[in-house]
Every structure is written in structure tokens, then in C-alpha cells.
Design a protein that fits this description.
Radius of gyration: 14 Å
Order of helices and strands: EHEEE
Strand order of the largest sheet: 1-2
Strand content: 15-25%
Mean pLDDT: 79
Number of helices: 1
Helix content: 10-25%
Number of domains: 1
């Protein structure tokens, strides 16, 4: 995705799930961080929050605003309704 110069992507339901049995939510968060740290473009997700605090995923905004030839364009990231992790809604 870096090589074809994406502007943005949306965190998908499998990007932040706990990788396998015996792993914890922290392992899933580390997996997501490893993916986003390599990205040379924006990551967004507007419809996933933690169950307990209702906060968005750390360091991943719900939207971005880009300037495209002098016009401000809003891009909102929305993923599937059922994230594959227990502590996210």
C-alpha cells in the first residue's frame, strides 16, 4: 500500500483482533500498532470504540481532512459492524 501511495485506509475488523487463543487484548493492540507504524498514509476508524471508555482506537482518528487542489475533502473511516475483539464495540 505504501508503494502505490494510498492517502488513507480504514482499520478492518481483523486488524485489531486478538491473534490466537491464549493471547490477550494487549497482543491485538501490539499487532495493530505494528501495522500502522509501517504505514506511510493515514489510518482511520470512526465506528470502533472501547467498551469501557468509549474512546477511539489510540492514535487512529475517526476521519481526516485533505486538501485536494485547493478543496478540503473529508474522509471518514468506517469498518464492519462486528470487530473481532471483546473489548471493542
Amino acid at each position: 500500500m505504501n508503494s502505490i501511495r494510498y492517502d488513507a485506509w480504514v482499520t478492518g475488523n481483523n486488524d485489531f483482533r486478538v491473534p490466537s487463543s491464549g493471547k490477550t487484548i494487549d497482543d491485538g493492540n501490539k499487532q495493530l500498532k505494528a501495522i500502522t507504524d509501517k504505514a506511510e498514509f493515514y489510518d482511520m476508524c470512526a465506528n470502533v470504540t472501547t467498551k469501557d471508555t468509549k474512546q477511539y482506537i489510540e492514535d487512529i482518528p475517526p476521519y481526516i481532512i485533505k486538501d485536494v487542489n485547493g478543496v478540503k475533502v473529508g474522509i471518514i473511516g468506517v469498518t464492519s459492524l462486528k470487530p473481532q475483539i471483546r473489548k471493542w464495540t
